[in-house]
Design a protein that fits this description.
globular, eight-stranded parallel barrel, two-stranded antiparallel ribbon, alpha/beta, 2 domains, TIM Barrel
Length: 281
Amino acid sequence: MTSRAAVRRWSCAASLVTSALLLALLLPGAPALAAAGDATARVDAAHYDAFWLWAGVKPQPALARAKTLYLLDGEVQATPSVRLAAQRAAVPRVRHADVWMVYRVQTLRWTPIVHAQILARLQRWRAAGNRVVGIQIDFDARTRHLEEYAGFLRDLRGRLPGDCRLGITGLLDWSANGDPKGLEALAGTVDEIVLQIYQGRRVIPGYAAYLARLERLSVPFRIGLLQGGEWTPPPALARHPQFRGYVVFLLNPRPGRSRSDATGGDPGDADDPRGARGRPP
């Protein structure tokens, strides 16, 4: 009797693991499980085709299959004076994917020199053969100040070439607590928002509750995921008329691990080039 009970328990556990693995394989774009028997779904870069690549992050095999790359080019710093600080030593040469040039922004009070430098860099990247489709602004805009942020973006868009899109990163609570006028202003200004579900090197607890309230968002959006981080897509996400897919923030693998192992375990142990910078819920 004891032997039969053990067999039944083993059979039940094996059935649960098999069901979880089949679910991960059958769902389009579903992240792979970190390990057999681990019910926490984690982001495996091999299952996605759009990535953020920051300076200092080593190339990974997934990049060869990428359709869209968001490459950090510089940071608009506020002190000691407003200036553009380059984050990349040389102009990249990407032939197989669309490219977004990303700028981290500490202040919205740009000088004419900063505007001119970004436009010049855009021209230089395109001249090198890169298919630059847009510029993404990575700024921590407060949820209650979206209308002011939209004004800055509207001015920036007017300076960009007509064939250059404008995108931004976004906070999860914009959709739930953002000023309706601000959200409406963004809808008429930017081409896409990438809502990040992580803060620094950790996935934000309760992200599903924020994503459940995306009905107010009328701008095309993607979900920004953390490589190796937890991710379970809400059932209604794929049906949202503005949902455009995912962007994965790539990390360096942990010391002593291969690049493929960067997708497993606790992403807080990986070398995140963004440091502790994050997105408060």
